[in-house]
Specification:
The structure is a homodimer of 407-residue chains. Chain A has 15 helices and 10 strands. Chain A is an alpha+beta fold. In chain A, strand 7 and strand 8 form a beta hairpin.
Chain lengths: 407, 407
């Protein structure tokens, strides 16, 4: 795993000037008309309260995750065995999401995790924020994190409000700047499963990664708590994960609106732990993603919902599910989600076709990544296209792999 | 990952003759005086009800897992940060263990897991038990299992009774032969952490693996349930895992009383899912472990408690925590546990020093494994000894690795 350079603004909350510098570092273009986001406007929340998004299809979409269907489709990738695996993969993260449902909590998705045991009265002495950051990262990897970075709390990315499923309206945000540091983790998703996208089968990559994410976040939060500091584990709730991950040096922003990491491309799920432990911050990394996405349209062209931006970064917003006042590539979340609802599972075509979606455990991919960061990026793109890397694998062929591998 | 040969007794419950043959295959020597084991006699259970095992030290031993200590030892490997990581690593498996404590359940340790959602009314059609076994193994690996094998239910290894922590006495066994097949999984433990054994730090390898074990077992049980069959996930409860793992082809029995796998040596934790789904069985594997253990005494000599057999396999039992009527190397569980209690954490010295404790992702280790299975095994043993592989790593050096790796 590669090293990350420690920033000079270690442990302090960025002030206006250093925030501007840090934003430039991260290629963030935040305008004066920027407005913080309320989780209520997230398209998944809207699919409960907003008739513009909610439909019989979206209700059915969620239903397939909870209740076995009475009749199974015979379409390859959408049969009983595909849903059986997908739903099983979500099982652990579902358990935690429902653990405190009686308190109007949906932990990991709408609310931070609370299943953390009380810590000791005494806090360990922190020799230096740099030293402690190294120790926390070492521990986090040992507890199962694939990638770890650290950044400062930034109110801009924190949701103004949480969302209550019970009342279908806003409720107070629990995470505040008192926890001034954020440990951000990225967990890699199963590449073979994602090759079958779109399919219910490929949704097993989502669920399995959320389940891993859940247990790793809980363990990191418990570890920091055991050292005598406060720690709040958060998965999809509380704050936008992508800007935090970029600032923490985990990767760059891609055209499809996803984080692209050096190690797994866009094939990750994110999580974060907010803490008051003094920790040095990482700095954003650049490896040519922005320049590549400027010339690549693989995701835009492959998206069946036509939800992904094809042009230059802009401040255009499609609807209330987009964040306002940031110049960037912005996906139409309504179109995206409608496609999910219509096919009864999540979609990851944009992840599958992304040229960065590789395993980098082999030298050709590492050479490819190096070339993709140079002026020869169009050559890299062409090589990727003719290689057939991004083509869909028929789900039944994924299942048949069992035949050859475990005979 | 290597393939496993499918046995001829696929899906049927072994009858007397085929059981004898299968026992020979597995090198099991079960005598007429064999008696099934009650979990109450497990040394961990005895450390609650049996004054011969219970002591202030053993109470304190458990206490360190639950409650932060008021004062921390300064001994390397037993400081606050070591316990912080160890206890965090146990956190997820602890949550599940305590989830139904009000119903006198300690799931994963004394009782099978119950956190499985109801399945559909209809079961998938199983083309053949062979076919289904391949599919289940493929799914299990995708859900995070490191090794998977399948064997038949065998009453001999099932505890006669479960143990109730509340009443400190026996309670009925829940798992029965109606679930006639057993999917056995092995999860690898962190080798670097185990290099520091004995230490509280090395106990993090135990906890982290149990946490992974828990979520993988739950996911596999949910997957089988979603296919319309019954499935019960079990970790340390319900049955002896080692004989099931050997019959399922995951490895051989070692002198230290642990399973030795080809892939990770003794560095694994086991789990199992009992099911009525028709599944073909695997057969035991042999790669020279028994012959190696006959000439090797690395664990016997390294054990500070002198708890590990130094002689030939025998039917001698040290106390009621040993199973009766089987000729094998038998560890003195009382001595072993007393050492754990005295040092306030689990011990894994026998795992650390075992010559099979390697990562086999490099060719020298694979060559070593091959040689260890030939008549040159004494050479292999000598090479292992002079290599210094099994030496203890000072815990502070494990922490310091953070310095070099994440600068």
């Amino acid at each position: 795993m590669r090293s990350r350079h420690m920033g000079p603004d270690s442990g302090r909350r960025p002030e206006a000037a250093s925030q501007a510098a840090s934003d430039r570092d991260a290629c963030f273009e935040v305008g004066d008309d920027f407005r913080r986001f309320s989780q209520k406007d997230d398209v998944f929340c809207r699919s409960f309260w907003d008739p513009e998004v909610r439909s019989d299809r979206s209700d059915m979409f969620y239903e397939t995750y909870r209740t076995p269907r009475m009749t199974w489709r015979s379409a390859d990738g959408f049969t009983q065995r595909d849903y059986a695996l997908r739903n099983a993969s979500w099982h652990v993260t579902d358990i935690f999401a429902e653990l405190r449902a009686d308190a109007d909590r949906r932990e990991g998705f709408l609310d931070p995790y609370t299943a953390v045991r009380e810590g000791p009265g005494s806090a360990v002495e922190v020799a230096s924020p740099q030293e402690m950051a190294r120790e926390v990262k070492h521990a986090a990897r040992t507890l199962g994190a694939d990638l770890v970075g650290i950044t400062g709390y930034d109110e801009r990315w924190t949701y103004t409000h949480a969302y209550s499923r019970e009342t279908e309206t806003e409720k107070p945000q629990e995470v505040t700047g008192e926890l001034e540091n954020v440990v951000v983790i990225a967990q890699s998703m199963d590449r073979e499963l994602l090759r079958t996208a779109p399919s219910a089968l490929s949704g097993a990559a989502t669920g399995a990664t959320y389940s891993r994410d859940t247990i790793v976040l809980l363990a990191i939060a418990q570890y920091i708590t055991n050292l005598g500091y406060r720690a709040v584990a958060s998965m999809n709730d509380a704050a936008l994960a992508i800007p935090l991950a970029i600032k923490a040096g985990l990767g760059e922003y891609g055209r499809h609106g996803l984080l692209i990491t050096r190690e797994f491309g866009p094939r990750v799920r994110l999580g974060k732990v907010f803490t008051d432990m003094p920790l040095a911050h990482d700095r954003p990394v650049r490896f040519g993603v922005r320049e590549m996405c400027e010339v690549c349209r693989a995701c835009t062209e492959a998206c069946p919902a036509r939800a992904i931006a094809g042009g230059e970064p802009s401040t255009h917003v499609h609807n209330r599910s987009n964040i306002q006042g940031i110049r960037k590539w912005t996906t139409d979340a309504e179109k995206c989600f409608r496609f999910w609802a219509n096919q009864n599972t999540d979609c990851a075509i944009c992840v599958r076709v992304c040229p960065y979606n590789r395993t980098y455990d082999n030298w050709p991919s590492r050479v490819w990544r190096w070339v993709s960061g140079t002026r020869l990026r169009r050559l890299a793109l062409w090589l990727d296209r003719i290689s057939g890397r991004g083509r869909r694998l028929a789900p039944r062929r994924w299942w048949n792999a069992a035949r050859s591998r475990y005979l």
